[in-house]
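Justification of resources, computational component.

The compute hours requested in this renewal are based largely on the per-chain cost of generating structure records like the one below. Each record pairs the submitted sequence with a full structure-token output. That output is archived, and it is also reused by downstream analysis tasks.
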Amino acid sequence: MTPDLLLRLRLLNQQVAPPTAPDAATLVAHLGAMQAQDYGQGLWAVGVRQPRATAASVAQALAERRLVRTWLLRGTLHLAAAADVRWLLALLAPRIIAACAPMYRQRELDAATISRSLAVLAGVLEGQPPQPRSALAQALQQAGIHTDGSRLTALLQRGVLEQLICPATRHGAEPTYALLDEWLPPAPAHPRPDAIAELARRYFRSHGPAAVADFGWWAGLPLGEARQGLEAVQAELQSVVVGGQTYWLPEVPAATAAPAACLLPGFDEYLLAYKDRSLVLDAPHAAAVMTSNGIFRPIIVVDGRVVGTWKRSPRGTAVELAPFAQVPVAAAAELAEAAAAFTAFWAEE
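The structure output for this chain reads:
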């Protein structure tokens, strides 16, 4: 397999080129989870993969509790199908909480303070409609718990990881929270080996061709558990070797059309979800796309490779492109169509 075909298959399996997802919840379940560190970029990550989606329709899926935007893989914000939230948290949260120990110490959040904070959050939210972040901050402060700096975010994240609270709808631009048991229905527990296998199945089906190290990095699992997950579903996959590296994928179709140029959001799965990004992004341009403080900028993708960045214009009515070099005429026309699709996606905002 050539690198070009590998990238074409990734775009196909991620449902970017062509976009084929029937609805937002089905798409996100297919991917396992979808990075949504930035709310608006997370909506567009769905929009670029789902024909006829709008920002309003994706937001409606969140409001209707078919999707949840919450802390999951690697302790970062993702979209997840509602039915997957509980088993994903059960699988991933213990390792994330352990990794957060230095951060808790830095913010003077000892076990007693965390326990008291979660009790305050539970008391404020029980039997109530979703409450805005600011109201939760006020309740904690009234209980003598400081919420300055990033302490509030750390406490809310911990409440999510403990399966106590759940991000709900947005109140304007402000997120709200509810008790998880009041926001989402019960769901069956997954034994840990089964959960790892299911996450591996979804990752390789939706992100393949990918290496086992890519899966381990994306999921935030130790490499040994990542290998166990792959072994559990290996019979459902095919393997290919590119540049001496073994990659796994659901199948190799007989033929694939050349992908159209596209405008992907910041933090998009197409770039972020792999430990090795060298096939997609040339090293000289990495700093223009991935900042030193962990920000992934929106990217221009032509023939499967990142060829520039883009941003929404200050007024939000147009797209400003910043290619690394001049793009071919055909790709420029496709990018103009992609920019028009982005503008239409936000038309009902």
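The chain has two domains: 18-183, 262-345. The two ends are 42 Å apart (CA to CA).
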